[in-house]
Design brief:
With about 450 residues, this protein is α/β, with parallel strands linked by helices. About 40% of the residues lie in helices and about 15% in strands. It folds into 2 domains: about 140 residues, N-utilizing Substance Protein B Homolog, Chain A; about 260 residues, Vaccinia Virus protein VP39 (Rossmann fold, 3-Layer(aba) Sandwich), CATH 3.40.50.150. Strands 5, 6, 7, 8, 9, 10, 11 and 12 form an 8-stranded mixed sheet that branches. A 4-stranded antiparallel sheet has the order 2-3-1-4, sandwiched between helices. Helix 14 links the parallel strand 6 and strand 7. Helix 5 runs antiparallel to helix 6, helix 6 packs antiparallel against helix 7 and helix 9 crosses helix 10. The longest helix has 20 residues. The protein is globular, with a radius of gyration of 25 Å.
Length: about 450
């Protein structure tokens, strides 16, 4: 019996290979679409173990590209939709599937990333063709993105009001709280890619030299960016951890904690826990999420820091002991972190702020119960919303609760001017200290220090 050899028909065409980088762009489209339409956070989607199912199969370089592309697309969401609208005769129908997101991701590459225009257009057209609902819009995607390429210079030269990339309800809140000029500066600061901030165990100046960065007045080491954080000197040895410069300030307000019993409520992912433990405190780190606390444990193991942990709802926690100090970095709207988490602007709803404010008040009352008379409570949030910050402390004091404000001094936060309120609380904004938004800025943070009275 002879061997039969199958010979391809000469007129049969082979299926063309997918364009290079298509897989990364497909994942970026999925992540952006989920964030804008299904309120899925970027952090959750970009988690290599628990996030997008196809992320782990990518090479590290492609995973980094997914993060940059998804983050920048969401950061410029308002700008991108406005630019694309100029080249669409009418809004896309609901039946268009992910076509709108594919257009945004493609336009982001053309306008704001160092990506060849033909690669951005070709991959976008291919993605549209592979989307069941969007395949009929391949021609439209091709035509619109080619117009974006042709008009790129004009689009980028047009003035961009900061609020175009901010939901109206959020922009109006900031104008009411801070005034139009400051609100505009906050929104403009959110458009800049933030630097990488590190908290080091010791010798900030030395680590700044090793890492090619600068030591801020607060002790944070700042470097422009890093594509692979785990490859940086000192990571494996546990000499530092990633933490925004503003987020590193509240723990400092507890002063010398060496030997003190300190409870870090709502502790995960553990940056502030690490600060307290490195300063010699006997720390109990609490979080209601077991997976988040497991990550905190892993971070402490890398850093070589010993802390006690407990999975519990802080508002109902009954440890059977009191503490010398409490650090309460309360759950909040996180509107101060849009530089690093632009998806928050589109995921949050205004009605959530009131609900979160109620939770914060309950946690503050629990913190009073947990601290010894004469002990210290630092209440902090990464929010720009007064209801979650200044109003919380004012309400607590006006209620007659057994606490007194301990004003913060500028020397405690590296001598930063303009970051202490008239009441003596800490207030940072993305457009202000430590070195201005043009040099990286910092997250919006609030902190108040309270002493437990008898």
């Amino acid at each position: 019996m002879g061997l039969t050899v199958s010979v391809p028909h000469p007129n049969r065409r082979r299926k063309p290979a997918d364009p290079a980088g298509l897989a990364a762009r497909r994942i970026a489209v999925d992540i952006v679409d989920d964030a804008l339409n299904r309120r899925q956070t970027l952090d959750a989607a970009l988690d290599i173990e628990h996030g997008h199912e196809a992320l782990a199969a990518l090479a590290p370089r492609d995973r980094a590209f997914v993060k940059v592309l998804a983050t920048e697309t969401i950061r410029r969401h308002g700008q991108l939709t406005a630019a694309l609208a100029d080249f669409l005769d009418k809004p896309l129908p609901k039946s268009a599937g992910k076509t709108g997101t594919i257009l945004e991701v493609g336009a982001c590459q053309i306008l704001f990333l160092d990506v060849a225009a033909h690669a951005a257009v070709d991959t976008a057209v291919t993605l549209a063709g592979k989307d069941r609902a969007g395949k009929h819009f391949r021609g439209l995607v091709n035509a619109v993105l080619r117009k974006v390429v042709a008009n790129r210079a004009a689009i980028l030269a047009a003035p961009v009001p900061g609020r175009i990339n901010t939901p109206d309800w959020l922009a109006e809140r900031w104008i009411a709280a801070y005034g139009a000029e400051t609100a505009e500066a906050i929104m403009a600061a959110h458009l800049a890619e933030p630097p990488l901030d590190l908290t080091v165990k010791s010798d900030p100046d030395g680590w700044a030299r090793k890492l090619g960065g600068v030591a801020l007045p607060t002790g944070t080491v700042r470097i422009a960016k890093a594509s692979d954080i785990v490859a940086l000197p000192g990571f494996a040895e546990g000499e530092w951890w990633v933490q925004d410069a503003a987020a590193a300030l509240p723990a400092k307000l507890l002063g010398d904690v060496a030997g003190n019993k300190v409870a870090d409520l709502c502790a995960a992912p553990g940056g502030k826990t690490a600060q307290l433990a490195a300063a010699g405190a006997r720390v109990t780190a609490l979080d209601r999420s077991a997976p988040r606390l497991a990550r905190l444990d892993a971070n402490m193991a890398r850093l070589g820091l010993a802390v006690d942990t407990a999975v519990a709802d802080a508002a109902a926690w009954a440890p059977g002991e009191t503490f010398d100090a409490i650090l309460l970095d309360a759950p909040c709207s996180a509107t101060g972190t849009l530089r690093r988490h632009p998806d928050i602007a589109w995921i949050r709803r205004e009605a959530e702020i009131g609900r979160l404010a109620g939770l914060q008040q309950r946690l503050l009352l629990k913190a009073i119960d947990l601290v010894k008379p004469g002990g210290t409570i630092v209440y902090a949030t990464c929010s720009l919303e007064p209801e979650e910050c200044e109003a919380q402390v004012a309400q607590l004091i006006d209620s007659g609760a057994p606490v007194a404000r301990q004003p913060i001094e500028t020397a405690e936060i590296g001598g930063l001017e303009g970051c202490i309120t008239a009441d003596g609380d800490l207030r940072t904004l993305p457009c202000t200290c430590p070195c201005g938004s043009e040099n990286g800025g910092m997250d919006g943070f609030f902190a108040a220090r309270l002493a437990r009275t008898a």
